[in-house]
Amino acid sequence: MATKECSATEACIDLVDRYSAHNYLPLPVVIARAEGVWVWDVEDKQYLDMLSAYSALNQGHRHPKIMAALHDQAARLTLTSRAFHNDQFGPLCKNLCDLAHMESTLVMNTGAEAVETAVKAARKWGYTVKGVPRDRAEIIVCDNNFHGRTTTIVGFSSEEQYRSGFGPFAPGFRLIPYNNIDALEKAITAETVAFLVEPIQGEAGIIVPDDGYLRAAADICERHNVLLALDEIQTGLGRTGKMFCCEYDGISPDILILGKALGGGVIPISAILASREVMDVFTPGDHGSTFGGNPLACAVAIAALDVIIGEKLPEKAAQLGAYFVSELEGMDSPHIKEIRGRGLLIGAYVKESSGTARTFCEKLMEEGILAKETHGQVIRFAPPLIATKEDIDWALERIVKLLT
Ligand SMILES: *Cc1c(COP(=O)(O)O)cnc(C)c1O
């Protein structure tokens, strides 16, 4: 039940306007319950969720197996801190390593924390293994990157709004153009410890690099003894039609960064995975988090991974995504310049002459579809991976109607 103060859309939004920071500009819908791919607002209007909380809901809302794990674990043990062991943490670490074919993992809570953890691991590896002089380590990152919102991370963003007013920033990062192998090779120096990159730039507007870009980047990194750190927080765990997007290039990174769907749409949990050589730069006391590796999140994550594997969500994303894209490409729209993406991470680029993507998202909302614009001109379509062909057809009918 919605609380009394919050049973009507406008009253709810007024509370947020009045009492919350204004750091988001949400669509004017107040969601009160959800199941699978569907959500209902406080007025009981039904919508198809085509954002999936920026891909944190790959398994859909309130997946029964994930909810069962949550309830079970909540009835037994929720938090120990890492001062003691708990019986869920080890099994999750093993499952994660098996899934990613990596030797070790370090579990945190949010995506940004996992990226910070990767930065720390890469720098310390640089000093203790590669032999970079103290405090000289440099990490190469890409224009239009999105890796989170901490001060270190926004410090190496190329997006003025993410940075403006939040400096001074940490040194040690160098920006290069995305999808440009020559730029990577040229930027590497003896002090470079890592190249941090997204396999597809989601927040930048679903920018898919050329086939082979990651393969070439991995080769260059290996040749120069530089760690390849892949941020798969959004692209990983099935979203793009493979378990990890880097599988398209047949590579495995030195550091893999996961978050979002690892928590099954229920609880924040993130992780980095790496070789022993890299991970063992951390010794007791070097790094930590009170809630990192808590048994409630670990139990949920074990179930979240089981669902992705058991229900073959990567294969589903590949099939449905291909169908979705071909239908979108087949429509004769005066408003859309380009459809791009992989699996069920799809962007429709709205022509500048047709207005902003936001306007289209507002109209889609009226039609019962919740999608969100990214970078002004791109409508992102990223439904839960448990969606059926019927769900996609239901959405397509409305999307095509609006766009043609
Ligand atoms: C969402 C996201 C992050 C940040 O994750 P939070 O949990 O919001 O801190 C980092 N990198 C990518 C690619 C993301 O999509």
From TrEMBL:
InterPro entries: Aminotrans_3, Aminotrans_3_PPA_site, Class-III_PLP-dep_AT, Orn_aminotrans, PyrdxlP-dep_Trfase, PyrdxlP-dep_Trfase_major, PyrdxlP-dep_Trfase_small. GO terms for molecular function: identical protein binding; ornithine aminotransferase activity; pyridoxal phosphate binding. It holds the Pfam family Aminotran_3. It comes from the Bacteria. Pathway: Amino-acid biosynthesis; L-proline biosynthesis; L-glutamate 5-semialdehyde from L-ornithine: step 1/1. Belongs to the class-III pyridoxal-phosphate-dependent aminotransferase family. The gene is rocD. GO terms for biological process: L-proline biosynthetic process. This is ornithine aminotransferase. Its EC number is 2.6.1.13. NCBIfam families: Orn_aminotrans (TIGR01885). Its cofactor is pyridoxal 5'-phosphate. Keywords: Aminotransferase, Pyridoxal phosphate, Transferase.
